[in-house]
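User: Please predict the structure of the protein below. I'd like the answer in structure-token form so I can feed it into my own downstream comparison script.

Assistant: Understood. Taking the following sequence of 324 residues as input:
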Amino acid sequence: MEVSYENEGYDNDYQSKSKGSILTRKNNTMPIWGNERTMNLNTLILTNIQSSHYFKVNLYELKTYHEVIDEIYYKVQHLEPWEKGSRKTSGQTGMCGGVRGVGAGGIVSTAFCLLYKLFTLKLTRKQVTGLITHCDSPYIRALGFMYIRYTQPPGDLWDWYESFLDDEEEMDVRAGGGQTMTIGNILKSFLFKLEWYSTLFPRIPVPIQQQMEKKMSEKYPPVVEETPRRINIPEKNFRDRDDYRNRGDLSDTSRSRERIERRERSHRDYRDRNYERKPSNANSRERSPYVSRRDDYKKSSSRSPKYGSSKRRDRDDYKSRSKY
């Protein structure tokens, strides 16, 4: 026999979303997936919860669902399994590290004590729906979603979480404060990450994980960034500054590229001008138009400006002296 929950105290917004969904298709009794005694919690966390004074004394007096919700409203301030500074994990490696949660324990948090208290009440589908749609505190909703993550079959997680993936309500999830997350981001972390601070969620089978990733990609398709289109710039002489400034068909990127090209061109011109060979001092003297190149060569090869020392000149002098 199916039970309909219309007009039983739920928000109108949620009724419109959940019409024909998991709330109306199934009965009011919720199944427990995994270990029905430990709620699939880490052994160290469960031991600390059951031995804590808060759980054995304070929470033992709470007998109803509404009393536990009021306790969550007044006591819960974060979603970590351990209180800040109560757990020493320095020097521990491997399976005794902080992630696995099997090393030295600490003071278990109020949130996880209340989470296990909800498990002992054997919540119905109507009560879990009241948790995740509660309007008084985001921590009440977060513990409801965490209860679903620990106790429900992996195949039903997407049906529970899909309508809330875009929820923008924020809360501080870290012990001591400093990490604000939205409900939507918390649910995405619950679905696709196994770790949650110093503990682990139950593993999700690989085929179900792949199906959820496919649904996630269909719901949020990747955004492809468009590459900027290159503009073909006509060749013009940009040395005229007025002509360059009046070019309205060029974008800022094109203008900056043209400015760089002009700077490089002026640098090349300046460099080539410096590499030009200057005439030496000997060749820089003005040459007389009446002096031939041969005479100039003789003058440049003589050692003495008065007598000269070229071999040809000495030979001519010897021949003239021998005649006399």
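That's the full token string. The CA atoms of residues 150 and 202 lie 7 Å apart.
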